[in-house]
Specification:
Blueprint lengths: L22 E4 L6 E4 L9 E10 L10 E7 L3 E6 L2 E7 L2 E9 L7 E8 L9 E5 L2 E2 L25 E3 L2 E4 L4 E3 L6 E10 L9 E3 L6 E3 L12 E3 L19 E3 L6 E2 L20 E4 L4 E4 L6 E3 L9 E7 L5 E7 L15 E5 L5 E3 L2 E2 L18 E7 L4 E6 L2 E2 L15 E2 L13 E7 L6 E4 L34 H7 L1
Antiparallel strand pairs: 1-14, 1-19, 2-11, 2-18, 3-8, 3-14, 4-5, 4-11, 5-6, 6-7, 8-9, 9-10, 12-13, 14-17, 15-16, 20-21, 21-33, 22-32, 23-28, 23-33, 24-25, 24-32, 25-26, 26-27, 28-29, 29-30, 29-31
Length: about 475
């Protein structure tokens, strides 16, 4: 089961003093990328790129089947093709790893591409790393390592793009057939040095997880740049001191995210089976059922065994079902509450669904719901410690629910109601379902949402950005909180 659990966060949490504050969300369907039209040439023989990426769409998501992280001119390429990481120095000099696919959309990956064609050994001229470890170059697509003292496409004067490829026209404009979907953080381009992963990260001494370190001491060279995406109104702002800003294309302040390599937030999980003709976009937070008939749904990328957690959804019509379910029994083609390990809160009349039918299933076998419809904010407060879930509309909890009531479970719904075999050790996710052609259902797990909250409320630890404040004792689904409460 492809879900993020506390014991398997896969390089996504830091316990050290350095924290990454922001990332940028990129969506291929929106043609979102950065560019620099007229770069100045740097050292085309020796350079290093380092970046953190959290993928949100995998496989063939655009016309080319390739998702570009960065491109320059006709032949400078770093991209995911077939979910493998691939690098092209120039025409005929591809250095690819085709033994490992990067399909974990719950994790942040750190990639380093370090180049020095002055090296006498061909294999030392291009070094690839992921999460601090060497990534073998096991394919050249008919080419080879660069020749000694070759000058490649990167750090040339050709058009530069971040998040797509410059394949339009005469390779002087971003091309939507090559866009990536995901989050990028801590993007470093170092001119004139072949660095190692330890210049950008380290293994945590307690957990063994690879994590970012402060890169402010790196000499980025004359034409290098560093993007930390910390300035919402200028996401392409270069923090290296070189003034090599990138221009935003279809990006705005709303595309800044707090989902980062040091605090990884839940999103919708594209790896849990999605029904055909459904789409999960915009940082895996927007869901739409565009099929021919029936219901479809998605689940969170983080499942929890303990703790108290809060999530919001912006409904797309009354035929929306928000709820919780056991991690082992997700069904993509029906709605929450229609399988016996899930509970769903239905927009129409605010009904509660368990085992496929309406139910008066509060702790006292009563239920007074709140009908909701298009644009309403549905809150889910999951109390896994006491085995109960509470549901709200625009800040008011249904059934006079009190999520802070603990063992009394006032106005909540016991998880045993959805599954007579419920165990406190079961992992549960939080997600939603939608009937056919009902608009965009928006999930807000706290790290990123397309529905900008007006109040920007956070949990007691300061994590997450929500429309309504999480109830006292409830937290956003992120790895920082999981480490403390999960």
């Amino acid at each position: 089961m492809e879900v993020l659990q506390r014991t398997a966060n896969r390089g996504s949490i830091s316990t050290g003093s350095y924290e990454v504050g922001n990332s940028v969300k990129l969506e291929d369907a929106n043609s979102e990328w950065f560019y620099r039209a007229s770069p100045t040439a740097g050292n085309r023989r020796t350079y290093t790129f380092s970046f953190w990426v959290k993928r949100t769409e995998i496989g063939t998501v655009n016309a080319s089947g390739n998702q570009f992280v960065i491109g320059q001119g006709q032949h400078g390429r770093m991209y995911f093709g077939g979910d493998y990481f691939q690098y092209r120095f120039d025409d005929g000099h591809d250095c690819r790893n085709v033994s490992r696919q990067f399909r974990d959309t719950s994790a942040w990956y750190h990639f380093v591409v370090a180049v020095d064609t002055n090296q006498s050994s061909a294999s030392n001229r291009v070094k690839l790393y992921v999460n601090g470890e060497s990534l073998a170059v096991d394919d050249h697509d008919g080419g080879s390592f660069p020749d000694i003292q070759d000058e490649g496409a990167f750090f040339s004067t050709s058009y530069l793009t971040l998040g797509t490829a410059p394949f339009g026209g005469s390779y002087n404009v971003g091309d939507g057939d090559y866009d990536m979907s995901g989050y990028l953080a801590e993007f470093c381009a170092v001119d004139g040095q072949q660095l190692t992963p330890t210049d950008f990260g380290e293994f945590d001494s307690d957990s063994g997880i690879w994590k970012p370190i402060n890169v402010s001491g790196i000499n980025f060279g004359n034409q290098g740049f560093y993007l930390n995406f910390a300035t919402a109104g200028d996401l392409g702002d270069d923090k290296s001191g070189n003034g090599k800003d990138l221009t935003e294309n279809n990006l705005a302040a709303a595309d800044q995210s707090t989902d980062t390599p040091t605090n990884n937030f839940a999103t919708g999980n594209p790896l849990m089976p999605l029904k055909a003709n459904t789409i999960l976009t915009n940082g895996a937070t927007n869901f739409k059922n565009v099929g021919t008939a029936g219901w479809a749904g998605f689940a969170s990328s983080i499942a929890v065994q303990s703790g108290k957690w809060y999530v919001e959804f912006t409904a797309a019509g009354a035929t929306t079902m928000c709820g919780v379910g056991n991690v082992n029994d997700f069904l993509n083609s029906i709605y929450y509450g229609n399988w016996n390990t899930s509970i769903g809160f239905y927009g129409t009349a605010g009904l509660l669904f368990i085992d496929g039918s309406t139910s008066g299933a509060g702790p006292n076998n009563t239920w007074t719901g709140l009908a909701y419809g298009d644009g309403d904010i549905v809150g889910i407060a999951l109390d896994k410690d006491n085995g109960c879930v509470y549901m709200s509309k625009n800040g008011t909890f249904a059934n006079s629910g009190d999520p802070t009531s603990g063992a009394s479970k006032t106005g909540g719904v016991e998880l045993t109601k959805g599954n007579s075999d419920y165990s406190a050790s079961d992992y549960f996710y939080i997600g939603a379902s939608q009937d056919i052609n009902n608009g965009i259902l928006q999930a807000n797990y706290g790290g990123y949402t397309t529905d900008t909250p007006s109040s920007a409320a956070s949990d007691a630890n300061g994590y997450g950005t929500f429309e309504y404040a999480p109830p006292t004792g409830y937290y956003a689904l992120c790895t920082k909180n999981l480490a403390e409460y999960g």
